[in-house]
């Protein structure tokens, strides 16, 4: 088929790009052998060096050094842990934290606007993953994020020294994760060897081949410690910009009509529901029914989003270590991320509205495999030209104090207190639309390539003469996330092989949203304008999208600045839209754990076993819309609902070493993850007259599961690892939707909402979220890492690290049936081929993720919605001119991979988007 040919062309393009990367890398390595000289060892964090467990002492630097530190951590832990370390101070191996974490086995990322944002671990999406910064649980949100997920794009990677991903649970780790606990650690002054000053400064320029813009990236670190290394201070700063272009084709899903929906008077299905108004070439009932049964795109359009992003972050640390028995560290972190997006587009508006009843099909072709109109010519269309502008502003603040003290040789304690706040704001969001009615000759054609169709609008869309200003919207919104934590623990060495630990935490978590809006549909009077050239501008998006030949890619859209000056609408104040809601949680936990390290039959056996008790109290607030009477009169009430639950969570982890280079691990734990924030709101609607309720469910219990893990790790040489892991998660309950009859007084809503029109004992038909049936998730991870020191000559400078993960799941989605978890890819793989020879380093990395679900069931009659396979290729190299000065060159998304979002199992295109390649050139100085 033509579609397959289009994708084959893409595969050939990607192959050519990969070959070019490989040839360039080989040429650079050849040049490096002539320039090679012995490079000085990079400073290794003192704390990591003390923790390291190595078979034979070996000195490595750069990327190999960070890999070695990560293996040391993985090997010595009782549970399943993977780690990433900075190659040097303020020198993380990837520009984005999420993109660094995706190199670890079992970890995948979500990309937004071309960069990694949130992560999934072992098939469980970001809502099931806890993230801690300097030991303190954190919530980082940007833009319109209203979930529990952590947005890694909020932070520059240069601000952090290490990342640890804990995939198994122990009692001493706070509850809240079904997938993993991610620990982010910022730099501390006593991490660096020697007293006095340590400093680093890096400068980069990054070029995007789609936007054709070059933007800066700057980072600096200054650290000082006294001569005795008992006290130190550190400050780091990072600033970066991004300016990608978001070129895409999207459909906003597909929908179809229904030939059985007939007019009772005429007996015809034309003009009913989502049916077309007529089909000229349909001469038989069978042809008519086939057209009305076929899916058509709701809003087919090419778009080109112009973005501008900037991010500024700072960390500070004061570290006091008067003796080996006492240490206190005060860490502070601040990050600010701003983004602006303008998104002009032109689209067929009729298909997604009641106006489809007037659309006449003049010509068509049906793809029977996908049951879609793959080609069509239409009359009496509404064509809409839109433009919008959104500004997002996000801030994150955190301060934490960690104190460690050894009271005796056997008794020691830890104290942790701190708070963080994340503010996600959209201070400006405006959208405008022009509309042309009665358009004849509009056409789309998906037959050559179903991801890049040809679209023609049937008239001159660069002229504003046929358009009328029909819509203007402006709004502002935001959300706040607050965490306060106090925690403490004691550890007592009962013997050389047995340690008891006890401790607890008290945490408060707050979430609130707010919003104001103003919309003017079909403006009248001075605000209405037909012939919109004076308030529009012509855009040409042909340079940013790869569209079907002959598509209309130049068109007029509302001009953001001109239209704001034109509309008297801007003099009207914004009004509350009743989007306010709040969730307040108090989480209390205590634990008891025993750590052991002994010998059984000549084999080292170590691990831990413990139990954790957690109590959660929830107060949720939201607006209820109340309709009473006939005709109904609408009123509003702000509702408060409370809930509480408790969990007892046993866990154990065993690590057996049958020989010096082999570790066998076994782990099991009861785990829980609290409901997502959007599901907890009591906001919705109540109709006492019709006895119906629709709302979120503040009485939800958490997700609960039992996790089992088994792994074997073979450390066959220095920096070498071959490991395999099996994992199984028995999920007790999965949150789904239902509509059932329930007595009102069992809903947790106040009786005042009934307004005397119904009794609290009356049965109401309730549509809500609930704890439904669970399911199972299982998977396999395989990890391999090795420097090729066994090869001769130049080839001994190569090395490889990679992993593959297979995950499968089946959970119940209520009446929709069973399917795999949303966000879960069945297959993921990561591979990095690296080269290090004295001052020269180079590496190429590949990350692959197979198809995954976004929602099930899908909307508009589609069975599901998801994202197809993605593969991203990155490369980097550096050359150390002197021990203090290094040149770097990095290539990001070298194949300009598309994100391919689909609907239905037949793979109908939903959004096909790319953001361009980025090339970054930089210099790094350290002292």
UniProtKB/TrEMBL annotation:
Name used for this protein in its record: TonB-dependent receptor
Position of the signal peptide: 1-36
Compartment annotation: Cell outer membrane
Domain called TonB-dependent receptor plug: residue spans: 75-180
Family membership: Belongs to the TonB-dependent receptor family.
Residue ranges constituting the TonB-dependent receptor-like beta-barrel domain according to the UniProt record: 440-894
SUPFAM superfamilies: Porins
Pfam families, sorted: Plug, TonB_dep_Rec_b-barrel
Taxonomic lineage of the native organism: Bacteria, Pseudomonadati, Pseudomonadota, Alphaproteobacteria, Caulobacterales
Main location: membrane
One annotated Gene Ontology cellular component of this protein: cell outer membrane
Keywords, comma-separated and alphabetical: Cell outer membrane, Membrane, Receptor, Signal, TonB box, Transmembrane, Transmembrane beta strand, Transport
Membrane topology: Multi-pass membrane protein
């Amino acid at each position: 088929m033509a579609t397959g040919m289009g994708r084959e062309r893409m595969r050939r393009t990607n192959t050519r790009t990969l070959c070019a990367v490989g040839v360039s890398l080989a040429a650079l390595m050849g040049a490096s052998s002539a320039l090679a000289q012995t490079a000085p060892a990079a400073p290794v964090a003192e704390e990591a060096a003390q923790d390291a467990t190595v078979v034979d002492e070996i000195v490595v630097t750069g990327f190999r050094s960070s890999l070695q530190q990560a293996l040391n951590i993985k090997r010595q832990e009782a549970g399943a842990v993977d780690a990433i370390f900075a190659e040097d101070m303020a020198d993380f191996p990837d520009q984005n934290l999420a993109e660094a974490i995706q190199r670890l086995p079992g970890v995948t990322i979500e990309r937004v606007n071309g960069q990694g944002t949130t992560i999934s671990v072992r098939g469980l999406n970001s809502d099931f993953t806890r993230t801690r910064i300097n030991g303190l649980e954190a919530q980082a949100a940007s833009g319109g994020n209203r979930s529990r997920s952590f947005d890694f794009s909020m932070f520059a990677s240069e601000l952090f020294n290490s990342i640890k991903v804990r995939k198994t649970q122990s009692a001493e780790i706070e509850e809240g994760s079904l997938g993993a606990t991610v620990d982010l650690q910022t730099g501390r002054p006593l991490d660096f060897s020697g007293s006095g000053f340590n400093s680093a400064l890096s400068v980069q320029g990054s070029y995007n081949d789609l936007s054709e813009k070059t933007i800066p990236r700057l980072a600096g670190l200054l650290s000082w410690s006294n001569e005795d290394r008992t006290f130190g201070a550190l400050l780091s700063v990072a600033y970066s910009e991004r300016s990608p272009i978001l070129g895409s084709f999207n459909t906003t899903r597909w929908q179809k009509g229904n030939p059985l929906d007939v007019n009772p008077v005429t007996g015809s299905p034309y003009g009913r529901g989502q049916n077309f108004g007529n089909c000229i070439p349909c001469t038989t009932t069978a042809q008519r029914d086939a057209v009305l049964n076929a899916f058509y795109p709701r809003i087919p359009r090419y778009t080109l989003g112009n973005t501008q992003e900037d991010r500024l972050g700072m960390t500070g640390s004061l570290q006091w270590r008067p003796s080996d028995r006492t240490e206190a560290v005060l860490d502070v972190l601040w990050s600010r991320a701003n983004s602006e997006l303008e998104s002009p587009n032109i689209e067929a508006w009729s298909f997604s509205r009641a106006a489809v009843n007037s659309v006449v099909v003049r010509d068509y072709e049906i793809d029977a495999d996908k049951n879609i109109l793959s080609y069509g010519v239409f009359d009496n269309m509404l064509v809409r030209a839109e433009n919008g502008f959104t500004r997002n502003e996000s801030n994150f603040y955190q301060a934490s104090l960690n104190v460690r003290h050894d009271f005796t040789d056997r008794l020691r304690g830890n104290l942790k207190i701190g708070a963080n706040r994340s503010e996600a704001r959209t201070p400006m969001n405006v959208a405008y639309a022009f509309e042309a009615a009665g358009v004849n000759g509009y056409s789309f054609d998906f037959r050559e390539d179903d991801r890049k169709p040809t679209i023609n609008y049937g008239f001159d869309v660069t002229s504003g003469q046929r358009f009328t200003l029909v819509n203007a919207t402006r709004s502002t919104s935001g959300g706040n996330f607050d965490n306060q934590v106090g925690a403490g623990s004691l550890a007592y060495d009962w013997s050389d092989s047995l340690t008891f630990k006890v401790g607890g935490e008290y945490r408060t978590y707050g979430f609130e949203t707010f919003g104001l809006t103003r919309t003017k549909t079909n403006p009248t009077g001075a605000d209405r304008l037909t012939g919109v050239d004076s308030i529009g501008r012509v855009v040409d998006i042909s340079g940013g999208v790869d569209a079907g030949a002959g598509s209309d890619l130049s068109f007029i859209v509302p001009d953001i600045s001109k239209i704001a000056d034109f509309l008297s609408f801007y003099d009207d104040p914004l009004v509350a839209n009743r989007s306010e809601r709040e969730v307040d949680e108090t989480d209390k936990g205590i634990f008891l754990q025993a750590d052991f390290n002994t010998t059984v039959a000549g084999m080292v056996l170590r691990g831990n076993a413990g139990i954790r008790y957690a109590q959660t109290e929830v107060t949720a607030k939201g607006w209820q819309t109340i309709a009473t009477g006939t005709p109904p009169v609408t009123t509003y009430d702000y509702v408060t609902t409370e809930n509480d639950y408790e969990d007892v969570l046993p866990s154990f982890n065993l690590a057996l070493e049958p020989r010096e280079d082999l570790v066998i691990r076994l782990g099991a734990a009861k785990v829980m993850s609290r409901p997502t924030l959007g599901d907890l709101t009591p906001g919705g609607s109540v109709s006492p007259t019709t006895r119906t309720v629709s709302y979120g469910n503040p009485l939800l219990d958490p997700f609960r599961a039992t996790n089992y893990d088994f792994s074997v790790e073979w450390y066959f040489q220095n920096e070498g690892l071959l490991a395999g892991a099996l994992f199984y998660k028995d999920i007790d309950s999965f949150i789904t939707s239902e509509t059932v009859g329930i007595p009102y007084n069992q809903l947790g809503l106040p009786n005042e909402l009934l307004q005397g029109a119904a009794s609290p004992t009356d049965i109401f038909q309730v549509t809500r979220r609930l704890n439904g049936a669970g399911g199972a998730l299982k998977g396999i991870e395989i990890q391999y890492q090795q420097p090729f020191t066994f090869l001769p000559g130049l080839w001994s400078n190569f090395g490889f690290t990679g992993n593959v993960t297979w995950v499968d799941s089946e959970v119940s989605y209520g009446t929709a049936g069973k399917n795999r978890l949303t966000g879960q890819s069945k297959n993921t793989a990561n591979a990095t081929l690296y080269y290090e020879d004295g001052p020269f380093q180079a590496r190429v990395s590949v990350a692959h993720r197979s198809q995954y679900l976004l929602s099930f069931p899908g909307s508009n009659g589609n069975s599901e919605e998801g994202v197809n396979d993605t593969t991203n290729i990155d490369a980097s190299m550096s050359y150390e001119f002197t021990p203090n000065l290094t040149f770097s060159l990095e290539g990001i998304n070298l194949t300009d991979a598309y994100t391919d979002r689909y609907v239905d199992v037949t793979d109908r295109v939903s959004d096909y988007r790319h953001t361009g390649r980025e090339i970054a050139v930089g210099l790094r100085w350290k002292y």
